[in-house]
Design brief:
The protein is mostly beta strands and about 170 residues long. It is about 0% helix and about 45% strand. It is built from 1 helix and 12 strands. The strands form 3 sheets. Strands 3, 6, 7, 10, 11 and 12 form a 6-stranded mixed β-sheet that branches.
Length: about 170
């Protein structure tokens, strides 16, 4: 099942009227999604609904590594948390951009247990029910953003069960 929300966001451009829409989607399973190692448990889909090419920093290097995060709220009641990428050292690093032509989309698999994401607020081998949404943010304060999309886009909140197969780690 695919869920999504279309948002209109703006890009820095010589023409002030240029508007580019960005869609983020989260694919959801009908059973608890396992969080272990490189096991993919979420998919985030970026879709260019505008009529111009969108450029983004690649998540493979430092400029794009932390742009995607997830807001996670335990159910039935709980405090919402943001799950971000963990800081890392860069032995190879340069400003790589990927482009998304008008009318096209790109789906990015996410493995929350691959060691690059903050740990979930869930004990080992426990299943938890959460509301979750994807958040993608790029701001001018981050440095050279003259060639990339700027703004904030979020997906709809979705309800998902996650099973934590990871050993206890420090986190939330």
């Amino acid at each position: 099942m695919m869920f999504g929300l279309s948002l209109v966001s703006w890009v820095v451009s010589p023409v002030a009227e240029d508007k580019i829409a960005l869609t983020l989607s989260i694919a959801e399973s009908t059973m608890a999604l396992g969080v272990k190692d490189a096991q993919v448990n979420l998919y985030v889909t970026f879709a260019n609904e505008g009529n111009r090419r969108i450029d983004f920093w690649s998540p493979r290097y430092s400029k794009g590594y932390e742009l995607l995060s997830f807001e996670l709220q335990p159910l039935p009641k709980g405090v919402s948390r943001t799950v971000t990428r963990l800081p890392r050292a860069w032995d190879k690093n340069w400003p790589e951009v990927f482009s998304l032509p008008p009318g096209r989309h790109m789906t990015r698999p996410i493995a929350l247990g691959d060691g690059t994401w903050e740990p979930l607020p869930l004990g080992t081998d426990k299943v938890g029910k959460f509301r979750i949404r994807a958040v993608f943010v790029e701001t001018p304060e981050r440095g050279d953003t003259t060639k990339v999309w700027l703004g904030r886009a979020t997906s709809n909140w979705e309800t998902v069960e996650l099973r934590n197969h990871m050993s206890a780690r420090k986190g939330f």
